[in-house]
Design brief:
By secondary structure, this protein is mainly beta. It has one helix and five strands; from the N terminus they run H-E-E-E-E-E. Strand 4 and strand 5 form a beta hairpin. The relative contact order is 0.16.
Length: 98
């Protein structure tokens, strides 16, 4: 299985970033092509919650698998050949010592 990693630095408290990331009502702001979320069974910050993400007419069944607020969340999404999972993690910015 392939892996992809990218890093984004955000100047905000981890809890605030985590809560914003989990807010599916605003997810279209950072998930390119996302047009709507339907079939939400609960808060996406709770393991076991299922929902459908839509990219135009293409649907992506999704489920929150693990939550460690504010450090990480694991999500499974897609179906068939496009199935994948993601686990964004929050880490403090390294500081230089002199």
């Amino acid at each position: 299985m392939g892996h992809h990693r990218f890093v984004v630095e955000v100047n905000a408290p981890r809890e605030q970033v985590f809560d914003l990331w989990m807010d599916r009502g605003r997810a279209h702001e950072w998930i390119e092509g996302l047009t709507r979320i339907t079939d939400l069974t609960g808060p996406t910050s709770t393991a076991g919650t299922r929902y459908t993400a839509w990219f135009g007419r293409m649907r992506s069944p999704s489920e929150t698998l693990e939550v460690d607020r504010p450090l990480a969340v694991k999500t499974r999404f897609g179906a068939g050949f496009s199935a994948a999972s993601s686990k964004p993690r929050s880490r403090p910015k390294a500081t230089a010592r002199v």
